[in-house]
Every structure is written in structure tokens, then in C-alpha cells.
């Protein structure tokens, strides 16, 4: 019998999610408070530029963290940096400044690492490490995120391939908003899929799992979550995973994919609803065997899911 790891015989799916998958609420609350103090420290001590606001992303910010595994993105929105070009020029200095402030944190911080766009580190909460990424960004949108208002931003990005990665980081708040607004019932299913991926050691990215569950819910017709069974949603999710040759996930909320992909990628694809050119499947060559394993496992799992 194929089942979720550590699920007891006869245990309902909802009970299993509560017992094993969902994070401890007090731990999440404490982790959020620790992350908040780091964010406030950065905002108060940054001297050369002004941080106007902080967006909390990652699984912690989206509300999709699985027990024993949480990550957070701290997106610092700089209000006195007026363009992507200026952000690119100032970014190395911004990261150095954030790192120097991080050294003053009262929390236990380990494994600090720099990338061209972020500072990555682990911060301890109750002696457990939590992954955190710090990202300096600017606010690209005016608050109106309709497709018409977002189009000029995407057109600039389309014309400047050399700056796309900088645009990508600055559009992360749209990713957070897209996932975090979902109902808790949908997030329970997201956590369950993430748990399955983790325990089965599959290659599907966390954000891809979030988007896949959201798309499956939409394809069910968005039934009232109070009446929807998690099992029914998971069957749709695993049906999609068991047929990767036809897995096509995209949205046109912020942009039309056909304007940026000519033609659209061959399935399987899961396109980032917030950022053109970001396909969350087949990121590198040589992954076909891993996806074939994912598909086979999903087929077996689907046949036994109950």
C-alpha cells in the first residue's frame, strides 16, 4: 500500500495533516517574530539608502511552510533607488551594508553566504535553523497590478535581457501575493504536496508545488473550500503529475505568456504567473530521468490515494 510517509493505518487525511504536516503554530509565530526583529534592525540601521517597507516571502511569508522546514525571504524595498539600472549599480554596496548590520543581530546566525542578488543565512529559533534570504529590491508597480498597468514594466524587461534577473527579484512581491491570498484549505493541500515531494525526494520546486495546487483548484471550478475534500483536490494534483506530457500550467493575470514565449514551451511546464521567462520545470538539461521518476511515482500514488 503506497501512502504518505508516517500516516497511520485508518488515519484520515485531515488528521494526518494536522499531526505531521502542518507546522506548529507557536513555533511559526516565534519564527515570524524573530524574522520581524531582523527586518526592523535592517531598516533602522541602514544609513546610505532608505528602506521604505519589507515584504516577507518564502514559505513562511506565504503561509505554506511544512513542519520542520521553513524558509523566509526578506525583501527590502528601497525608496530612494529610482530604477533597475540604479539598483544594479548599487546592489553590491547594499548587500555589504545589510551584511554589516546583520552582524549586530542578537540572534544566532550561521552559514552566511553571498550571491550576486542576496545574502543567505540560517537563523536559530528554539535551536532549529531557519533559512533566510535578504534581497534589496525596488517597487516596480504602483499598487495597481492589473495586466494593463503591469505591461509597461514587462515590456521594459523584455527589451533588456541583461536586466531581467534584477526585474525578477523585484517582482517577487507579486509571487508572494499570488500564493498567500489563497484559502487555508488550499494551503493545507500545498503543504501536503510539499511533504510528499520532500519525503519522496522528488525534484519539483516548492514554488512549483504551490502553483500546481492552485491551478488544480481552479480547474475544479474553485468549489467552496468549506465543502471541498482535501482528497478530491489531491487527486486532481496527482492526476496532473501522472501525465507530465500534458502538464501545462500558466496564467494571464499579469501578462500574456504568448507575448513572451514563441512558441510556448513543450510540456511539462509551470510558468511563473508574476515573471515571464521563468519556467519552473526542466530548468537544466539532463533532468528527464528525474521527471520520469516523478511521473511513475505519481501514477502509483494516485492509484492508491484514499
Provide a descriptive summary of the structure in words:
By secondary structure, the chain is an alpha/beta fold. The protein has helices at 13-21, 25-45, 58-62, 84-102, 147-159, 164-170, 172-180, 184-200, 206-219, 230-241, 288-304, and strands at 51-57, 71-78, 109-114, 119-125, 128-137, 248-249, 269-270. Strand 3 (109-114) and strand 4 form a beta hairpin. It folds into 2 domains: 13-139, Beta Polymerase, domain 2; 184-304, Poly(a)-polymerase, middle domain (Orthogonal Bundle). The protein has a 5-stranded mixed β-sheet with strand order 1-2-5-4-3, with helices on both faces. It has a two-stranded parallel ribbon with strand order 6-7.
List keywords for this structure.
single chain; 306 residues; alpha/beta; Beta Polymerase, domain 2; 2 domains; 7 strands
Low-pLDDT stretches are none
Number of separate helices: 11
> Order of strands side by side in the largest beta sheet?
1-2-5-4-3
Tell me the name of the CATH class of the largest domain. Alpha Beta
Mean pLDDT over the full residue set: 91
Order of helices and strands, N to C? HHEHEHEEEHHHHHHEEH
Please report the total strand number as a whole number. 7
Work out the count of structural domains.
2
| Helical proportion, percent range | 40-55%
So, the CATH homologous superfamily of the largest domain? Beta Polymerase, domain 2
The proportion of strand residues reads: 5-15%
Quote the distance from N terminus to C terminus.
11 Å
Largest sheet: 5 strands, mixed
Q: What oligomeric state is this?
A: single chain
Structural class of the secondary structure composition? alpha/beta
Gyration radius, in Å: 20 Å
Q: What is the CATH architecture annotation of the largest domain?
A: 2-Layer Sandwich
Amino acid at each position: 500500500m503506497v501512502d504518505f510517509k508516517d500516516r497511520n493505518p485508518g488515519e484520515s487525511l485531515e488528521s494526518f495533516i494536522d499531526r505531521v504536516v502542518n507546522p506548529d503554530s507557536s513555533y511559526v509565530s516565534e519564527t515570524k517574530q524573530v524574522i520581524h526583529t531582523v527586518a526592523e534592525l535592517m531598516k533602522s540601521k541602514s544609513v546610505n539608502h532608505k528602506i521604505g517597507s519589507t515584504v516577507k516571502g518564502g514559505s513562511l511569508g506565504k503561509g505554506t511552510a511544512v513542519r520542520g522546514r521553513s524558509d523566509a525571504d526578506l525583501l527590502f524595498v528601497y525608496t530612494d533607488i529610482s530604477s533597475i539600472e540604479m539598483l544594479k549599480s548599487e546592489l553590491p554596496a547594499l548587500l555589504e551594508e545589510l551584511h554589516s548590520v546583520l552582524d549586530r543581530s542578537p540572534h544566532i546566525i550561521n552559514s552566511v553566504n553571498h550571491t550576486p542578488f542576496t545574502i543567505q543565512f540560517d537563523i536559530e529559533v528554539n535551536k532549529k535553523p531557519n533559512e533566510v534570504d535578504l534581497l534589496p529590491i525596488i517597487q516596480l508597480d504602483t499598487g495597481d497590478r492589473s495586466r494593463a498597468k503591469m505591461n509597461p514594466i514587462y515590456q521594459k524587461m523584455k527589451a533588456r535581457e541583461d536586466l531581467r534577473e534584477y526585474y525578477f527579484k523585484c517582482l517577487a512581491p507579486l509571487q508572494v501575493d499570488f500564493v498567500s491570498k489563497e484559502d487555508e484549505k488550499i494551503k493545507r493541500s500545498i503543504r501536503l504536496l510539499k511533504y510528499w515531494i520532500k519525503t519522496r525526494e522528488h525534484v519539483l520546486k516548492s514554488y512549483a508545488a504551490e502553483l500546481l495546487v492552485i491551478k488544480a483548484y481552479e480547474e475544479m471550478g474553485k468549489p467552496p473550500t468549506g465543502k471541498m475534500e482535501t482528497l478530491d483536490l489531491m487527486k486532481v494534483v496527482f492526476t496532473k503529475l501522472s501525465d507530465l506530457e500534458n502538464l501545462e500550467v500558466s496564467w494571464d493575470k499579469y501578462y500574456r505568456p504568448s507575448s513572451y514565449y514563441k512558441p510556448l514551451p513543450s510540456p511539462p511546464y509551470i510558468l511563473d504567473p508574476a515573471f515571464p521567462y521563468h519556467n519552473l520545470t526542466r530548468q537544466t538539461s539532463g533532468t528527464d530521468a528525474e521527471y520520469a521518476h516523478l511521473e511513475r511515482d505519481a501514477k502509483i500514488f494516485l492509484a492508491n490515494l484514499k
